[in-house]
User: Which sequence fits this backbone?
DNA sequence: GGGAACACTTGACGTTGGTCAACTCATCTA
DNA sequence: TAGATGAGTTGACCAACGTCAAGTGTTCCC
């Protein structure tokens, strides 16, 4: 929770703020891997890497964004808060994912706070520079556009699920999102605490607990943070996954 | 509901499919007004205008997108459907608004169906051509990026509201979105039927009715499709509008 | 080893919103 | 004018989820 716990982790050498291994990590990101090495080097000239401890606040809802962020390592949660104390997890990001592009591009206050759910290393691309790069380098603009489009579609799915599906169905969707397989049975490890998952799914922890026992009827067995799914297609059917396309 | 009710409304003259008055209308759109006339003319070379009657389906969830659409006149609703019969209105668009950029850019199936809520004229920018234009013309890419960013943020707000606010609060937010004033009292006309508004707010029509009577306590009086709001700031306070920034 | 702190679960109960049915009212049509 | 139709409202009831409280580990720390 302590903003001061964060540490700069730069080592400026060649006029570039990034260490070579960080630059290499950035180049491997699905987000930027289509960019030419020259362009990549250029847009990261002013970039820096910051470390955050678990529960450190990266920024707060309402702040003005000063940099586009990319998770290099760890986990970041984006939580929305309203005045009467309500709080929810809008998104959970893992290594390789970019966040808050929309706030940086529009220069509007954050709609969410960001908190490190695990010790994390975060890349910052300063906003002023980034906006200029996007305006001037059409390859970058195109990459951002496709990335934001994909992200946009996942939010549309989220809105539909919130409006149309039950808590147990949304939990099932979340579990399916954790598996890599599409058939048969599997065991997945929950990557977050159950209270974090509850906030992500959009229910209270008590309700999450009940949703899990509800899913026993669908062949889902929980033991600590290990979840065994007996029949993946059956679970997909239960939450109508993939059936949205009528 | 009849796909065949739509009519092509083109009149090709100068190798351009658009009538001059349609081109002028496009140039006035907040979306494209920052583009140079030359660029605008270029991206609209293959554009066409289609008319739809009330309740015509413009496309269906699951279809592969073939063109970016812009509402020139009328109203369009985007509805999401799930397999067990549930349906909800994710968005309602009015004249001047673009839709489905994300599906066109990613070439993925629509997550929603589009229906004309009023007799409407819709501009189509063919997908193949549009994707090429976005890749080659950086001004266009930048405009799309800022537009999609704004849109993205409104969806984030939507997710937060769905997770954290009551039906009556979401209705109040919807009503506030209809007013232009920020203070005092006002009377707004509901631009859609109440069943459409119910789907938009994310409740059943019966619940919308009850939410309206609930809002009487906040100075909201309904008479047909005229809604009088006695105290706009009080209504904003009721649904915590603008207080998200803690 | 004792106990404080935390995460999670379970039960009892209240509130919100969905469901079903009846009813009103306006519009449209024969 | 009578009847049909559709939108909206209202009431009774129910299911889903939130709230509050108690209870069970588990971990951590002295």
Assistant:
């Amino acid at each position: 929770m302590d903003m001061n716990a964060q540490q700069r982790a730069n080592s400026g050498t060649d006029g570039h703020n990034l260490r070579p291994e960080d630059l290499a990590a950035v180049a491997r990101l699905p987000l930027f891997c289509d960019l030419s090495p020259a362009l990549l080097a250029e847009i990261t000239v002013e970039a820096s890497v910051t470390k955050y401890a678990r529960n450190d606040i990266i920024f707060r809802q309402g702040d003005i964004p000063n940099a586009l962020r990319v998770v290099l390592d760890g986990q970041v949660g984006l939580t929305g808060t309203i005045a009467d104390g309500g709080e929810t997890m809008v998104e959970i990001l893992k290594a390789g994912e970019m966040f808050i592009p929309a706030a940086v591009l529009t220069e509007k206050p954050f709609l969410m706070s960001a908190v490190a759910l695990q010790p994390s290393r975060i890349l910052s691309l300063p906003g002023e520079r980034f906006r200029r790069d996007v305006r001037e380098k059409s390859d970058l603009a195109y990459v951002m556009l496709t990335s934001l489009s994909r992200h946009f579609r996942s939010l549309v799915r989220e809105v539909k699920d919130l409006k149309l599906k039950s808590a147990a169905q949304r939990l099932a969707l979340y579990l399916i999102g954790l598996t890599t397989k599409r058939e048969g049975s599997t065991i997945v490890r929950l990557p977050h605490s159950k209270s974090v998952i509850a906030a992500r799914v959009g229910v209270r922890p008590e309700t999450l607990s009940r949703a899990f026992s509800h899913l026993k009827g669908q062949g889902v067995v929980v033991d600590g943070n290990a979840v065994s799914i007996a029949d993946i297609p059956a679970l997909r059917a239960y939450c109508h996954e993939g059936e949205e396309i009528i």
